[in-house]
Amino acid sequence: MSDELILMGEPSYLRRLGTLCSVLCGVSVLLGVVLIMLDPGVESLVATLVALVMTVLGLALSRR
């Protein structure tokens, strides 16, 4: 167990922020995939890839 859970009993704000970021950006990725299927373009692909990267970074932050 991490020291944070032993000492404080609840997750820090940074972990909560990471979780929120991963959830919101994950939803954006799903919407981006639908957008790419409806209207393929470079802008849609780039925006979806950026949202995917932010999702992964948010997951990494929430796991620390």
Features:
elongated; single chain; mainly alpha; 0% strand; transmembrane helix; 64 residues
Oligomer: single chain
Share of helix, binned: over 70%
Structural class: mainly alpha
| CA distance, first residue to last residue | 11 Å
Run of helices and strands: HHH
Task: Chart the SSEs and their pairings.
Layout: H1 3-7, H2 13-38, H3 42-63
Task: Provide a descriptive summary of the structure in words.
With 64 residues, this protein is mainly alpha-helical. Helix content is 83%, strand content 0%. It contains 3 helices and no strands. α2 (13-38) runs antiparallel to α3. The longest helix has 26 residues, at 13-38. The N and C termini lie close together (11 Å).
Describe the structure in brief.
Keywords: Membrane, Transmembrane, Transmembrane helix. This protein is mostly helical and 64 residues long.
